[in-house]
Design a protein that fits this description.
Length: 140
């Protein structure tokens, strides 16, 4: 905002006083912060909730295609429901779109081992270079 004011000499000699108002900028930053907080919390949980098995030693894998099998034997690829007969195609698309060619299987404790082996085999045939099985760490 520019303000005009008379200088000490009097007669119409105007100088411009430049002043930056940061209140609107602060408001924008706060709104963006709130939007970021809401969207980041919504992105954490994608897909159905499953009761993961426990393991003594685990490592953290942060990237890759996540395949989830719930207790009702429904399969999800990155949170999207995929019929079992179209699993290879869905995995192929997801692995091709991912920069890390890793598939992480999140299977419920009640999922049968044969289903796990079948899904991991289909992940390998879809182009996954690495496969991992998600588990929770046992309490000491």
């Amino acid at each position: 905002m520019a303000l005009g004011r008379l200088s000490e000499g009097g007669e119409g000699d105007e100088s411009i006083v430049a002043e930056i108002n940061i209140t609107p900028l602060t408001d924008i930053f706060l709104v963006l912060l709130i939007i970021f907080m809401i969207t980041s919390s919504a992105m954490v949980e994608s897909g159905p909730k499953v009761n993961l098995p426990q393991a003594g030693v685990t490592s953290t894998e942060t990237k890759g295609v996540v395949v989830t099998v719930d207790p009702q034997q429904n399969v999800y690829v990155d949170g999207r429901a995929v019929p079992r007969d179209q699993l290879v195609e869905g995995l192929r698309e997801a692995v091709a779109a991912s920069d890390v060619k890793r598939v992480v299987l999140q299977g419920d404790r009640d999922v049968i081992l044969g289903d796990v082996v079948n899904i991991l085999d289909q992940a390998r045939s879809a182009g996954a270079e690495e496969v991992a099985i998600a588990a929770t760490r046992k309490a000491p």
